[in-house]
From TrEMBL:
Keywords, alphabetical: ATP-binding, DNA-binding, Nucleotide-binding, Transcription, Transcription regulation
Domain Sigma-54 factor interaction: 138-367
Domain called PAS: residue spans: 3-56
Pfam families: AAA_lid_14, HTH_8, PAS_4, Sigma54_activat
InterPro entries: AAA+_ATPase, AAA_lid_NorR, Homeodomain-like_sf, HTH_Fis, P-loop_NTPase, PAS, PAS-like_dom_sf, PAS_4
Name of the protein: Sigma 54-interacting transcriptional regulator
Amino acid sequence: MKLENHLLSILESMHDAVLVISKDSTIVYVNTAYSVQFGVPVHKIIGKKLSKVEPKARILEVLKTGQPLINDYSYLDSLNIHIFANMTPLIEKGELIGAVAIMKDISEFYALQEELQRYKTYSTQLEKQLNQKIFSLLESHAPGMRQAVEMAKKVADSEATVLLFGETGVGKEVFARAIHEASPRGDKPFVAINMASLPESLFESELFGFEEGAFTGSRKGGKRGLFELANGGTLFLDEIGELSLFLQAKLLRVLQERAFIKVGGTTIYPLDIRIIAATNRDLQKLMREGKFRQDLYYRLNIVPIHIPPVRERKQDLPILMNNILSELKSKYRKQVTVTQEVYEIFERYDWPGNVRELSNVLERMIAVCSKSYFVPEDVPPFVREGSVLSESPIEPSRQYASGTNALNLPALIEKTEKEMLEEVLRTSRTRTEAIRRLGISRKTFYQRLKKYNIQ
Ligand SMILES: Nc1ncnc2c1ncn2[C@@H]1O[C@H](COP(=O)(O)OP(=O)(O)OP(=O)(O)O)[C@@H](O)[C@H]1O
């Protein structure tokens, strides 16, 4: 069979568009696929000069250079399409006589790619918004806290092990959850283990689980351990500093080998978890005292984040109180506001139990409060007594100067305080009684009357 005789039929049977031009760029041939795909009737194009029809056509380059162009992307202005083409020079007896292009219309693919790109940008924006929302509970005006939150946001989408340092109740678990939720593992489990409350004898069965028949009376079907439950997600090892040296060694082995064996079994289970650990202890000191393994410390301390105590970020009290109160208000179905007096007491107290203590105190107050605002008597005595009384109240303007006053708590506090003063004055027989009921000093009382222009 002589292929040359069938060449035209072969070209016509192709699904890709074929275009042949002569040396002077005259279009000498296009196949049926060309006219079908590009919507150009054959008779309308044959004989035309491509350099006129499509001056930027890439095949003109091939005529110029005599070099082929392979997998070449271009946009055809005259047809308003995106194409991929292979273009080859036609050589006869060593002389360039024209060029051939075999093209694919990729406009649809191109449009899809653009759409995909649009969705990618959109999803990145949504992801950012989601991260903002996740971390919104940790909004802060204090430099130390902001640094900690920035670091948490940065490492969230990596696999890096994070070690959270901070006193009890500062919000280490809140941080760990935020990092987990903002991470690619966010839709997988978040499992928290408190090392301090885990008895040594139960460590292995709780963490690794056990196989059926592991010991007399063991549960049928065995038991899944916390490592297995957290697989694919994040494991939060809280109070890591409380772990005995013996258990530290066991934990280290699992973290190093990234695999574990259940109690009473031989099967090796791979471990696909991200570790976030936390401590309120000085691990370096524990290491010096020989109470914490160096190798475990270095394995956990990849990204250390220090969360400052509440006493070092008192400018965040309005945010924290607002976060906590909004939950408590719906839990207790009550509306309460914080008066300036109460806020000042809170501000002077050092909150050794940090956010947890603040949360407990507010819950205790809301549970027993029958008014729509808190007065100093509502504050538990240990907080009132623990706050060093200052007779020069902090001006709200100074207090909030550094922050974005998004909650407008100061204005709310002032409004409530004024209303409360008026009500107590109205319902007290004497000013001394009003002062006693308000639980403030005589001096502060008269300062407030002056401030609010109350006669
Ligand atoms: N920014 C915050 N806004 C509102 N509530 C918070 C915030 N941070 C922490 N909390 C609340 O304070 C309490 C203590 O937080 P968390 O358990 O995260 O602290 P922790 O540092 O892990 O404590 P511990 O060291 O005792 O384990 C929790 O009830 C938590 O919901």
